[in-house]
Amino acid sequence: MLAISLLAIFSIGITAIALEDKIGINKAATALLMSIISWILLSLSGDIQDFTTPFVEHLGEITETLFFVLGALTMIELVDNHGGFRFIISIIKTSRKRKLLWILSIMTFILSALLDNIAAGVIVVSIIRKIVPTQEDRLIFACMTIIAANAGGSFSPIGDVTTILLWTGGNITPLHQISHLLLPALTSMAVPLALVSLRFGRHDKWVIVADPALSKKATTEVSLKIRVTMISWAIITMITVPVFQQWTSLPPFMHVFAGLATLWIYTDIMHRQHPEIGKKMNMCDALSRADLGTILFFFGILMSVAALNTAGVLGNIGTELESLIDNPLGISFVIGAMSSLVDNIALVAATQGMYPIEAAGTYMVDSPFWTFLSYCAVTGGSLLIIGSATGVTIMGMEKIKFGYYLKKFSLYALLGYAAGAGVFLLLNS
Predict the structure, then answer these.
(1) pTM value?
(2) What angle in degrees, to the nearest 10, is found between the helix axes of 2-18 and 292-310?
(3) What confidence tens digit (pLDDT) does each residue in 144-168 have?
(4) Do 363 and 370 touch, CB atoms closer than 8 A?
(5) Which of 354, 377, 352 is nearest to 365 (CA)?
(6) Where is average pLDDT lowest: 181-190, 213-222, 407-416?
(7) Inter-residue contact 121 to 382 (CB < 8 Å)
(8) Which helix or strand (DSSP H or E) is residue 341 part of?
């Protein structure tokens, strides 16, 4: 009875999250309430003799992930407030549509691996708004950005919340993930990109129009040297997270907080010389802009999955999946496709609960199962615009309709997803 109740609550909650725009209820509120009700049922059921121990254990693991995301988002906001990403606009010189699509997609792919796919998507869409003059073209560029961001996030341990979960959960190590998934991830972006770019003629172009007010603000208030210093430090901090964890055995968020604290001190010293800037660009402002709703959403989802895990529901589902799908890689592929409808964070967290890490065998650290899951869970989210946090974020920024993406980009994303999976299977056969 407990298992059925928990699954019912989880199903209702996930459905409400997917229909957020239709029902007008924020997904963070839904996720939080779902998690609270689930744990209340656990505490009152009597089926679990000691539920407080797993509660504390899950809370500790989840908090590590949330602190990492919070620190990364805040650091990005601080850098962006000081114009750290704006100088990228001045570097882009081309006015050819097809060439610009390739430049921005590759940029998104790289930034997703270095920062994370949500941050990369927000940065690139902000750039698109400044240099792509027509709404029709902006929609094409924005949708391609979703695919490129998820592709870039799939091969990096810090590229997506799900890859962070797999890394911090000990399922996959950074070097293994990068070396085994770079080519599949690149393929999953290149195939849709090649097809989408055919929408533009070779010589199609428009005039690149920069925002004069933005350029003036960036150059008069914060020097280019400071902007480059800040974005360089943020990128170095994120890149060296795996090295820090290997060296100290401390949680990754400690390194992100160290980078954030360093930038905080740097900007405070800089603001002493320019107090008028400090009022508008200080850390408190960056913290207020950090997407705390996303943090609360992640918390609710992960704690809901933890409740299912504690009740033994996930283990039973894992056994059923194994009986239906004989190949473990087939399970990863199906989970990836499911992530286009069900939040991939919940799916990966549930999969970790269904298949505990083994010392040897199918579910050991760095096994093909976990490696392929990292690719599938992230890139599979591109099949529908609601399938990833990046897609939902850009959907809101550019007011992209669900049907538009489904008709014009879902097939491209599916072809890229399948092609990348094929490359992985070929390399690991």
Answers:
(1) 0.71
(2) 160
(3) 999 999 999 999 988 887 888 888 7
(4) yes
(5) 352
(6) 213-222
(7) no
(8) none
Q: What distance in Å separates the CA atoms of residue 421 and residue 379, rounded to the nearest whole number?
A: 10
284-289-294 Cα angle (round to 5): 125
Q: Which of 370, 386, 391, 388 is nearest to 378 (CA)?
A: 388
pLDDT tens track for 281-326: 666 666 666 667 777 877 887 788 788 877 877 667 766 776 787 7
∠ Cα 367 370 372 (to 5°): 100
What is the token pair recorded at 87? 């100088």
C-alpha to C-alpha distance for 111 and 99, rounded to whole angstroms: 18
- pLDDT (0 to 100) of residue 283: 67
* Residue 102: per-residue pLDDT: 93
CA atoms of 331 and 326, how far apart (whole Å): 8
Task: Write the CB contacts of 371 (distance below 8 Å, at least 6 apart in sequence).
Answer: 172, 176, 177, 180, 181, 424, 428
DSSP one-letter string for 356-377: --BSSSTTBTT-HHHHHHHHHH
Residue 200 contacts residue 417 (beta carbons within 8 Å): no
Q: CA 79 to CA 238: how far, in whole Å?
A: 13
- Locus of tokens 């199918």: 362
Interacting residues of 126 by C-beta distance below 8 A, sequence separation 6+: 85
Take residue 285 and report the two structure tokens written for it.
């402002």
Helices assigned H by DSSP within 169-291? 174-197, 212-221, 224-239, 241-248, 252-273, 275-281, 283-289
Q: Is residue 66 within 8 Å of residue 74, measured between CB atoms? A: no
- The residue ranges of every structural domain in the chain are 2-427
- CA 219 remoteness from chain centre: 31
